[in-house]
Automatic annotation (TrEMBL):
Coiled coil: none
Residue intervals of the Saccharopine dehydrogenase NADP binding domain: 6-109
Entry superkingdom: Bacteria
Protein name: Predicted homoserine dehydrogenase
InterPro entries per the UniProt record, alphabetical: NAD(P)-bd_dom_sf (IPR036291), Sacchrp_dh_NADP-bd (IPR005097)
PANTHER family cross-referenced by the UniProt entry: CARBOXYNORSPERMIDINE SYNTHASE (PTHR43796:SF2)
């Protein structure tokens, strides 16, 4: 049986390297470690090859350069996973090249406009018989799977609350920092009369030990647009992200105020410098992070109910969470699962159990809570 050939773009980057490490545990795959640096790609292959269940190779590929379609055909790639963010401001040239080459496409984007707009390529995806999936990350892939599970059997969903707070000692990628800063101090679109400003204010949320109480601030994610029409009741939705160290969180609030006042145009252009400053405090706090989802509404009998879910990540394993959806999708493609071709946000294709299975071997606990 032929191995499924999966190219990971940005494979030696922050999320890419973690994704390749998880994929290498699957048999029946040939993983192409791809990027613009041959030495970095080769080093990752050499570090993983001894214990890998899959076969690995590397290739020098610049997905933003012309000729990607021909390159994918020459390498006989079956699926491409795009991990090179930030996706805010990117176009769909990589996904389009995949459709033209007859290759499945998956990305780890969490930018609202990028994820929600991928369906513009639906005609090309269906004509080619491939999947073009955006948002195979913590949001909306995991978050929607959780809400699907919690909302099952409910007659009406009235509100959804989602939050993510990584441990301060957990590694953070530059592209993630840039993405967060891109909407710091800017209005979050499509939220009715609330007129929320990204990162402007904080609110508290209590997680189980050892994470404890964390401050969260409003952030822009695809779920804000995608989840309300998905459930009976067109629920209101809140999403917050937070930093473990409260003074860094308050610093983000102050930065948001400056941007909201027009004193700073775009904090993301300072991402490298700000990440370096935050790293001064890298040894403070813990390596424990968490994600929560709470769903409120009416049960099948019309009684008010609230259901909750939490993910706890320790040992610095939090950054693996955004890679779990792509791992589960590759597993399904390799098994020949019937996945309907088309271009769409990554929702409804994975169950919560798929994520639980992919988290095996990591310091990640997932459970429903009262």
């Amino acid at each position: 049986m032929r191995e499924l050939k999966v190219m990971v773009v940005g494979a030696y980057g922050f999320f890419g390297s973690r994704l390749v490490a998880r994929l290498a545990r699957q048999s029946g795959l040939h993983i192409v470690v791809a990027g613009r640096s041959a030495s970095a790609a080769q080093a990752l292959v050499e570090s993983l090859a001894p214990g890998a269940c899959s076969s690995l190779s590397h290739a020098v590929v610049d997905v933003m350069a012309p000729g990607l379609e021909d390159r994918l055909k020459a390498l006989e790639v079956d699926a491409l996973i795009h991990t090179s963010g930030p996706f805010q401001g990117q176009d769909y040239r990589v996904a389009l090249a995949c459709a033209q080459a007859g290759v499945h496409y998956v990305d780890l984007a969490d930018g609202r406009d990028f994820v929600c707009g991928i369906d513009v390529l639906d005609p090309q995806a269906k004509a080619a018989g491939v999947l073009l999936l955006s948002g195979a990350s913590s949001v909306p892939a995991l978050s929607s799977a959780v809400v699907d599970a919690l909302a099952s059997g409910m007659a009406r969903v009235s509100d959804i609350d989602i939050g993510i707070s990584p441990g301060n000692r957990t590694d953070r990628g530059l592209s993630t920092v840039a993405a967060i800063l891109s909407y710091c101090g800017k209005p979050l679109p499509g939220l009715g009369q609330q007129a929320l400003i990204g990162w402007l204010r904080s609110y508290g949320h209590d997680y189980p030990a050892p994470v404890g109480r964390r401050l969260l601030s409003a952030c822009d994610i695809p779920d804000l647009a995608l989840l309300p029409p998905r459930y009976a009741g067109n629920p209101s939705i809140r999403f917050g992200a937070g930093l473990e160290l409260s003074f860094l969180q308050r610093g983000m609030n102050a930065m948001a105020w400056l941007a909201h006042r027009g004193l700073v145009q775009d904090w993301s252009v300072h991402a490298r410098r700000l990440k370096r400053m935050a790293d001064w405090f890298k040894n403070w706090g813990s390596d424990a992070g968490a994600m929560h989802v709470t769903v409120g509404g009416l049960d099948a009998k019309g009684q008010a109910c609230q259901r909750g879910w939490v993910l706890m990540a320790g040992s610095g394993d939090g950054p693996y969470v955004p890679t779990l959806a792509a791992c589960a999708l590759v597993r399904k493609l390799a098994a020949g699962a019937p996945l309907e071709p088309g271009a769409r946000p990554c929702m409804g294709l994975l169950t919560l159990q798929d994520f639980v299975a992919e988290a095996q071997g990591l310091d990640i606990q997932i459970r429903e809570i009262a």
